[in-house]
């Protein structure tokens, strides 16, 4: 066989071409698509996990003059009666209530006995459907007292030239809680003393059947 000698210049020109020719890359397997998390199956006629809740504010007093717990709405009276041994109050009266439908959170506003506005912030999710009864896990419930008009007016009056600036008034939290509630059940969320006295504001939540 006759050998062909290549000039150094020709060889140098061919080397980059040889380096550029590489074997085709092996096909890589496509990444596995993420699995969708299972979702709660809505009940017939529903488009999602939606629930109607009833928030009730009850003023409780150690003095007489109000109604006994038995004269309150049925669900509220039963819930208070279940814990009556832990309540030192003699009379109760419903101050305000709010009905709200939500699928994951709700923020109804209610009025206290002295006209103070409260916000009930609630975050929840469906927990189970054991025995055909839906239940919900309220991961966060917080009742906050909103600033009063006179407090806001005082803040604006104090924010005049020559006076030190004041930070905006934030809602004052009264109570926080987390709990489980079944559909058709009324739960006593908690209580908070009114102005540090003997009277208290009791918060109840009902998952309307």
Provide a descriptive summary of the structure in words.
By secondary structure, this protein is an alpha+beta fold. It has one domain. The protein is built from 3 helices and 9 strands. Strands 3, 4, 5, 6 and 7 form a 5-stranded antiparallel beta sheet that branches. A hairpin with a 6-residue loop joins strand 5 and strand 6. The radius of gyration is 33 Å and the shape is globular. The protein starts with 7 loop residues before the first helix and ends with a strand.
Strand and helix map with partners:
Elements lengths: L7 H13 L30 E11 L12 H9 L8 E12 L2 E2 L2 E3 L5 E12 L6 E11 L3 H10 L13 E11 L3 E8 L6 E8 L2
Antiparallel strand pairs: 1-2, 1-9, 3-5, 4-5, 5-6, 6-7, 8-9
Provide a short characterization of the protein structure.
The chain is α+β, with helices and mostly antiparallel strands and 209 residues long. It has helices at 8-20, 74-82, 149-158, and strands at residues 51-61, 91-102, 105-106, 109-111, 117-128, 135-145, 172-182, 186-193, 200-207. Strands 3, 4, 5, 6 and 7 form a five-stranded antiparallel β-sheet that branches. Strands 2-1-9-8 form a four-stranded antiparallel β-sheet, with helices on one face.
């Amino acid at each position: 066989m006759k050998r062909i000698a290549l000039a150094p210049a020709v060889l140098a020109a061919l080397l980059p071409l040889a380096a550029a020719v590489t074997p085709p890359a092996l096909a890589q397997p496509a990444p596995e698509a993420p699995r969708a998390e299972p979702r709660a199956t809505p009940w017939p006629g529903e488009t999602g996990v939606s629930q109607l809740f009833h928030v009730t504010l009850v003023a409780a007093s150690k003095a007489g003059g109000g109604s006994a717990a038995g004269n309150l709405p049925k669900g509220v009276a039963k819930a208070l009666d279940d814990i009556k041994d832990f309540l030192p109050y003699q009379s109760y009266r419903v101050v305000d209530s709010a009905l709200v439908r939500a699928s994951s959170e709700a923020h109804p506003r209610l009025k206290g006995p002295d006209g103070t506005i409260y916000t009930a912030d609630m975050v929840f999710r469906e927990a189970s459907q054991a025995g055909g009864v839906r239940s919900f896990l309220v991961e966060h419930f917080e009742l906050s007292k909103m600033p009063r008009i006179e407090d806001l007016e005082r803040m604006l009056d104090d924010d005049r030239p020559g006076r030190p600036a004041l930070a905006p008034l934030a809602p004052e939290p009264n109570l926080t809680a987390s709990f489980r509630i079944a559909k058709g059940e009324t739960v006593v969320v908690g209580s908070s003393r009114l102005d540090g006295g003997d009277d208290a504001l009791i918060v109840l939540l009902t998952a309307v059947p």
